[in-house]
């Protein structure tokens, strides 16, 4: 009898966890296969006219990466490391109905965007960018402590020659590739901030050009 009680309790505990994992998996698949409105790429191109179709496709990949790690962050703030991906995110938000439906299916709630100036504490940007670094590295299978390359979200602005972009360097002693005010050391990412804006879910938290 005691064994049956134990098994029933175990099932009652295990079933909600299994349902939660299944839901999160479905959300990640939804984000990964989502087809964004084609107007988003056109509007990003208007801001950065030097980008090719292939470049714009990479920006959309970066946006999917960012939204994926927002899902994985369990409602904690995630900073946005890229100006060009942030621009795509802004354009996506402008399609209000599409964005609302996307958020419902991808997060189960609305993912807000909060300007850097509206962050609650001075350390929000650092906390958010460190979380973005860890999650982006895990997604691209990179050691966050000893990286041999940059994850896409941290590399894309430099790859696409984004004039106002944020440039991250693996070699903290070599600042030749960093533009004043936008260059950051990836290996010491906790010491950097500089992002475009931030987001929160239902008003909980904020970050530098990112979400939770």
Task: Give an account of the 3D structure.
By secondary structure, the chain is mainly α. It has one domain (23-191). The chain has seven helices and two strands; from the N terminus they run H-H-H-H-H-H-H-E-E. It has helices at residues 2-33, 38-47, 53-72, 83-94, 96-106, 124-139, 152-159, and strands at 167-169, 183-185. Strands 1-2 form a two-stranded parallel ribbon. Helix 1 packs antiparallel against helix 3. The protein is globular. It starts with a helix and ends in a 27-residue tail after the last strand.
Overall geometry:
globular
Low-pLDDT stretches are 175-181, 190-197, 201-208
Strand content: under 5%
- Sheet/helix structural class: mainly alpha
Q: What is Rg?
A: 19 Å
What's the end-to-end separation, in Å? 45 Å
Q: Indicate the percent of residues in helices.
A: 40-55%
Order of helices and strands: HHHHHHHEE
Tally of helical runs? 7
For the residues shown, what is the average pLDDT? 80
Major sheet description: 2 strands, parallel
Number of domains: 1
Largest beta sheet: strand ordering: 1-2
Count every beta strand, where a strand is a DSSP E run of 2 or more residues. Answer: 2
């Amino acid at each position: 009898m005691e064994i049956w009680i134990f098994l029933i309790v175990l099932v009652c505990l295990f079933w909600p966890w299994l349902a939660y994992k299944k839901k999160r998996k479905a959300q990640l698949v939804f984000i990964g296969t989502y087809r964004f409105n084609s107007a988003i790429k056109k509007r990003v191109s208007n801001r950065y006219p030097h980008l090719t179709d292939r470049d714009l496709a990479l920006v959309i990949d970066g946006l999917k990466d960012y939204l994926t790690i927002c899902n994985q962050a369990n409602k904690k703030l995630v900073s946005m490391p890229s100006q060009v991906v942030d621009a795509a995110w802004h354009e996506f938000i402008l399609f209000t109905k599409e964005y609302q439906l996307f958020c419902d299916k991808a997060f189960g709630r609305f993912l807000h965007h909060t300007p850097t100036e509206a962050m609650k504490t001075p350390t929000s940007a650092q906390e958010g960018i460190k979380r973005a670094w860890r999650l982006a590295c895990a997604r691209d299978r990179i050691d966050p402590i000893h990286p041999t390359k940059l994850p896409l979200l941290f590399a894309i602005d430099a790859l696409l020659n984004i004039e106002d972009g944020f440039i991250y360097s693996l070699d903290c002693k070599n600042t030749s590739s960093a533009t004043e005010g936008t260059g950051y050391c990836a290996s010491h990412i906790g010491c950097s901030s500089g992002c475009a804006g931030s987001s929160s879910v239902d008003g909980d938290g904020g970050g530098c050009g990112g979400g939770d």
